[in-house]
Structure prediction request, 807 residues.
Amino acid sequence: MSHRIQPSGAKRPRPLPNRGRLAVAIYLAFGSAAFAQAPEPERTATLDAITVTSQKRSENLQDVPISLQVLDAQKLDELNITNFEDYVKYLPSVSYETGGPGFAKIYMRGVASGGDGNHSGSLPSVGVYLDEQPVTTIQGPLDIHVYDVERIESLSGPQGTLYGASSQAGTLRIITKKPDTAGFEAGYSVGVDKTTSGGSGHVAEGFVNQPLGDSAALRVVAWKEKEAGFIDNVRGTRTYPSWDADSGGNGTENNFDLAREDYNSLDTEGFRAAARFELGDRWTITPTVMHQRQESPGFFAFDPQVGDLAVTHFNPEGGEDRWTQAALTIEGKIGNFDVTYAYANLDRDVDTESDYSDYAFWYDTLAGYGAYFYDNDGALVNPSQYIQAQDRYKRDSHEIRFSSSQEDRLRFVGGFFFQQQDHDIQQRYKIDGIADSLAVTGWRDTLWLTKQFRQDDDKAVFGEVAFDINDQLTATLGGRHFRVDNRLKGFFGFSAGYSSRTGEAACFDQTDFNGAPCINLDKGVKESGNIGKANLSWKIDDDRMLYLTWSEGFRPGGINRRGTLPPYLSDYLTNIEFGWKTTWFENRLAFNGSLFRQDWEDFQFSILGANGLTEIKNANQAQIDGLEMDLNWAATYNLNLSAAVAFYDAKLTENYCGFTNASGVPVTNCPTPEAPKGTQLPVTPEFKGTAQARYSFDLADGEAYWQLAASRVGERTSDLRLRERAILGNLAAYTTIDFSMGYRRNDWSLDLYASNIADERAEVSKFTACAETVCGAQGVVPEYPNGQVYTNTIRPRSIGLRFSQSF
Prediction:
């Protein structure tokens, strides 16, 4: 997925500036007379070299002894990639779940237990970087609009020695295009699209690169996009048994004022500005600032019992995600050593509203909970709940590293890293009109309040040393020593008038905490440890390399917000891998792959416990065996073919009993395990593959093309636990097919594209609004005979037209 056709002895056409080449001449797809033009002089095709920085230094992709896939700038344009879901489709080692833009839970190589992503839950197991800066917040990475991007690197397997705690299973790196002092450059792109069973969208993007003398340059990028909605909130009613009985048969609510079609549209706008200052021949300074705002009024899943791409929800929903990332990178030389200092500051604010009426309905229907909610006069009120949340993230990171010359027989890269993540959490679970005694003190209509502050600190020293044993053999040793500190402080729970045991009744400090009435949680956990890496690579010749790697990754432990539970411990991943990097037929074909086994020790597992609180416990042990391969072939000068596949066998190697001992160690010996030894891990398919064919040819003093791309995702399980898995059901296999065609001439291009042309209703994840055994209960509620299980899906068929121009 990472090589290009390059003619031997011929001038390469200027690459397209933005989203692909131009779309014209539909007759080309049907083999018209355009194919019968005079034959061109014979031109030989080869694959371009791809430069990556995955190992903290610039190297040729084919020389890096790790499993690594790259989507470079041209590939990003060709595939019309603009966001996370677009590019992850073409990375076979990556799986994900999502609750909407900005809330993806990313997994790599089968290292997935499901259930991560809660604000007080585990840190991610996959790190996401924007250039040198980590951009993975606790609930998910930033959903960065992909435009004017140099490449996306996908590093499979533990990357802990160089990238640290949240790169336990792998790392994704988004590398932006940098300011260039060579000359002025600018471009723009505008497009429109239509989504089947949905609305219309549009996008406008542009960039300017302006030199500022001989030693400085400025690059500014901006974008504005509207993605069409495709989920309908249809009209409906809901009757609460307790409220119905108290009100004489009128305890029914409706959503008539909220119902509308395509209500999950998404508006994105943002900019990126970067400068480059060259201080002589040895030092450069690159400050960067990037800002983005996303706003959506709806919900990104559907209820099959209501209808295809439809829900019936009764309270306002939507969210706004605003973030600013400021960074400073200083690069230079001290003697013979390269020095890099990277600083980043992330400020992210997320405001959301969520309908929580399912929780209220099911608990009232099954247990009569609605009878507890009354007003100041003692009359029962509508028990329908909704959530208003504010999440404020701040992250500061510093890294300084030193590296020796790559020409040295003995060379190294190493340095120091520090980061602090803060998460200011506010969640109000509201029922309108409840009595003052039932509301948390100072928070009207708020049945439950979460008002907490979480801080995660990470300090590390790291390094890798490589030694050329001879001209063909190179040995590498790496290590990282880390210290982590996780703290969680604040208030969570009910008022003292509603609960005599939790919430305000459990406070041990009556001090006001950021507006909360008191403090009932103040805990922390500190850990330190070491992880390592060893690699032996054999350069058979200039075109072929074999390597053997042993590597470790980790994820820090933390605090459960239910104060009576013990902390959860760090989990570790150990990887043994055999891989190859090869090119053939005078660099016309590249074939890379890796075969590996990973052991996952005491992995962290999140579930919904009592009162809907997330509980994190160390589960047990798992093993993932896998094979990853990718092939790129310059079949002719005009035709390029590529494919990538991943096969995984990810299973428990011990019983999952669902509880730990007093020390937090998972118990694996129990009469009825919730998931017995041999159970497949959730979310990750046993097979994922992609393929692409692109044919380009000269036409009317320009260049035309057609392209076909496909992605296949195998069947997946929805949950680790067998009982919950049976309620949710498996995630069905699916295939998506994308087609595009276009034409370019001089400095402009036009592209016509269709994504998901078969209109697959892909099942990305399934979930219930409360515990699966409650909201997913089957055969007990006539309105929902199969329980109420939601499905997250990809965008339906979308057809678009895009015009681009560069200067």
Q: What stands out?
A: Helices lie at 73-78, 84-88, 160-163, 241-246, 357-367, 722-728, 772-775. DSSP finds seven helices and 43 strands in the chain.
